[in-house]
Amino acid sequence: MTMLVPILGDQLSASAAALTATDRRDAVVLMVEVADEATYVRHHPKKIAFIFSAMRHFADELRAAGWTVDYVCLDDPANTQNFDGEIVRAATRNAATGIVTVEAGEWRVLAMQQRWGTLTGLSCSILADDRFIDTRADFADWAQGRKRFVMEDYYRLLRRRTGLLMDGTNPAGGMWNFDSENRKAPKKGLAYPAPPHFTPDVITKAVLALVAARFGHHFGDLLPFGHAVTRAQALACLDDFIAHRLSQFGDYQDAMVAGQDHMFHSQLSPLINAGLLLPLEVCRAAEAAYRAGDVPINAAEGFIRQILGWREYVRGMHWICGPDYAARNHLGATRDLPAFYWTGDTDMRCLSQAIGATRRHAHAHHIQRLMVIGNFAMLIGVDPHQVHEWFLAVYDDAYEWVETPNVIGMSQFADGGVMATKPYAAGGAYINRMSDYCSGCRYKVKDRTGPDACPFNSLYWDFLARHRDLLGKNHRLLRMYDGWDRFAPAEQTAIRAQAAGFLARLPGKADGY
Ligand code: FAD
Ligand code: DLZ
Ligand code: SF4
Fold this sequence. Notes:
It is a single chain. With about 525 residues, the protein is mainly alpha-helical. The chain contains 22 helices and 7 strands. The structure holds flavin-adenine dinucleotide, ligand DLZ and iron/sulfur cluster. Flavin-adenine dinucleotide binds near residues 273, 306 and 403.
């Protein structure tokens, strides 16, 4: 009897259900590098290198733990370059008698897993992914019958259920949520401790050469490459974050500073999403730092809410919103993504900073993604599917289960308000308040019209005006529409003409994308 145990590139956990459910003496673990997964959107070369290197290291760790691992490299001449083809080949090669796998994180790959039994003629059992803190079934129960899916309600349920930051039945620090303390603007003189950088070993060097040759033409810098690619390195990243950045994470969670690509953020998302760290252990580590008196409650709570709250919530929403969620387009947006999303070549400093970080690191922090890159795309009316494909391709932590709710729902309002109660639309004033970008920008952030006016301002008002039919009755936008109505008609005309002029001059879609 030989069980074939396919482990996907984001299932790199020794505790993955298919490994704990199988006897290693009767099993062959299958791991495959396939071009289809690297190119169905053109992933950032750093992201591909991270995944391949982490997969190769994980395969070695499994072998050392006594597993038989069948590992198919991308450049194996017999590689069919897709999951289905490799499952069929491996089933035959290993004379498999059955398949045990962990449910993929997303609808797209789950659909493939559901045909592996038929394709191979073997029984294929798909086990629940128990690396998340909640289960799909429990999230569905929570969502059942609700008119609105409020993240904060779900988060409190999980706080109670896990006991994280709880003092008996009360929230630690006396409040559930310290968000109001977590919106400080950046101040001068702050020191930003750099996250760890790991020198590539021989395995990573081989992957870097492969990725440079095969995917070097994709958007993004492959080098320098310093990602953690093993469980031990991932744990070192967690320790480093807790020791050096968590204490200020809360205060400056929403801040942006030119030239500071990481701020006080953890950079742990690619590691958690690939399985090198488990979300619950990360939350427990943050709580322990708070209990030890090393970090304040607003930092620990703010950080834990991102993982226990937001991460679990978007995962649940991915499953309840169904496989067609990425096709939603509530605002009917049709514009092509401007070419500078693939180059960073724009005189809007906020966008060039955020896209530049993305190009260098395959990473950008939350407010850059939401309030700069995503906000701009929504204001100018980019087709949300193009925005979705861009976000999925360029970030090292992007898989459809987490990217689509954040992009289609939170950032583009393309689901019409399932995820967010109002669009995350903002003009230059917000960016100016939360960053130091505007002082060095060629545009004047206070101007709405004129040759030097910040484009975000006219685009913001134009967005509200053009979508009044759909958004005008939204209670959370009434104040904004009041603001619009207070402009004199001539001013409204000038603002909309300013926006129209800007949109007419925008560069179109980049060649090849
Ligand atoms: P930190 O700021 O240190 O936060 C801690 C952890 O909280 C993160 O590591 C992550 O695991 C979790 N987290 C925080 N916010 C979210 C969120 N909204 N959804 C899910 N998890 C969250 N996150 C992804 O993991 N993959 C994506 O593809 C992704 N796409 C995004 C697209 C848009 C438009 C927006 C607005 C956000 C997106 N996020 C995504 C959420 C968030 O921006 C990243 O998780 C975060 O920037 C990762 O950096 P970090 O580890 O330093 O996070
Ligand atoms: C993102 C990605 C890439 C680039 N390459 C692979 C791969 O070669 N092999 C693999 O097993 N997984 C890869 N992944 C992750 C998958 O595309 C997919 O997003 C996740 O497994 C979640 O379903
Ligand atoms: Fe961005 Fe406008 Fe500020 Fe320039 S002035 S950085 S375009 S918000």
